[in-house]
UniProtKB/TrEMBL annotation:
This protein's UniProt keywords: Gluconate utilization, NADP, Oxidoreductase, Pentose shunt
Gene of this entry: gndA
Record-level GO BP terms: D-gluconate metabolic process; pentose-phosphate shunt
NCBIfam families attached to this UniProt entry: gnd, PRK09287.1
Protein's name in the database: 6-phosphogluconate dehydrogenase, decarboxylating
EC number in record: 1.1.1.44
Amino acid sequence: MTQPANSPETPSPEHADSLAQIGVVGMAVMGSNLARNFVSKGHTVAIYNRSPEKTRAVMEQHGHEGAFIPSETIEDFVASLERPRKAIIMVQAGPATDAVIDQLAAAMDEGDIIIDGGNALFTDTIRRERDVAARGRHFVGAGISGGEEGALNGPSIMPGGPAESWETLGPLLEDISAKVDGEPCVTHIGPDGAGHFVKMVHNGIEYADMQVIGEAYHLLRYAAGIEPAELADIFSEWNEGDLDSYLIEITAEVLRQKDARTGQPFIDVIVDAAGQKGTGRWTVKEALDLGVPVTGIGEAVFARALSSALAQREAAQNIGLPAGDTTTLEALGIERDAFVEDVRRALYASKLVAYAQGFDEINAGSQEYGWGVQPGDLARIWRGGCIIRAKFLNRITEAYERDPELPSLLLDPYFKAELEKGLVDSWRRVVVTATQLGLPVPVFASSLSYYDSLRAKRLPAALIQGQRDFFGAHTYRRVDMEGTFHTAWSGDREELSY
Ligand code: 6PG
């Protein structure tokens, strides 16, 4: 099927005996693994890549795995698809996606479905959906999580777009998604950009989750002096309890790894400057616009930025900002095993805040854009396949089953009891100890402040309102009567009401 579509010797794919139920454009690892996942479930899959060498390589290595229909032109690719045609784009997010959408839309017909499976910015997805719909085709922005392994063996999938497309596409996506307790980790999230918005926040939570694990590691290593091999065992043990999750599991693997070149712990040969491709940053930018405090995710994004400011960090070390590490756990009278348990609990509590904030942002986004996203559904489809998959998501699913309108995850009776049962005391001790030792814990500390702010009866915001009114006549409201007020600060200080 690699011949040109209109070659006189071969029937065009449109007339071939068997057409593909779905197609994948982009044969880098994510795209080829997704295509292999579809064929492993018995589907016929059309594949196409801009440079045909990649398509040929996939056929050479994996052609025997099932029914692929490779094509070397986009027209052939489109012609090899069953109607309504369904094509998933797995190319680098950005202009490459726009180019492929344009080509597909031109070659497709009314009612065909273009799916973008990359990490697109949701506002781009909204724009693309509008443009594609104007050409009579459907467009579905779908977040796909789980990395290369997930794409092959079962990712968590977050499709947006028109409900009509979900009817055709849903069964195919259910086939290839991860399953937890027999339930597929995919659901229709909502119209236009809803799927990519939710995937964006998923990634923001991923950033916070990774950072809190990093902070726990750092404290255990540099406050408690535990070496990586033993830390690997501690994380493996944690993975048996409340913290059971993919990210804790791989943390143990990374810490257990020895560098083959030097024999040192692998963690010690990695430059401590974290990269980022943008989804965490987008989560925070959007949260700022929506007015939702995602402080844990924000600190996690900034922690990556600070880690990468190598010149600044080096200057600070050399010219010597005074170090805080002049004391030790021992000098503070803290016993090692008790500290390890406190750190585990601080990690759990901070992670809970990150999820609570992420869900707040999703609810606010859904409200703003009119998507009708069901938070309980998200917790359910994140239980398997995705990077933030965790046992704890069962608890979140249950929390939203108990109360779909839950004002904050932190207020769910189960989580509230967990926090009050001892998590908070440990959390406070860990933040205090880290501060005394001069070890940075940006997400542990900011999440604790968020928790304390949320439950506070009074906040210093009253003073801020007073200051704003003083210098700018910005007005304030009173606790004891309706209305808007201003005090004539520079005059007789009489209170005026509006
Ligand atoms: C996933 C991941 C995936 C990707 C991240 C990495 O859900 O499968 O989130 O989308 O690995 O975008 O992001 P950074 O490079 O920004 O850490």
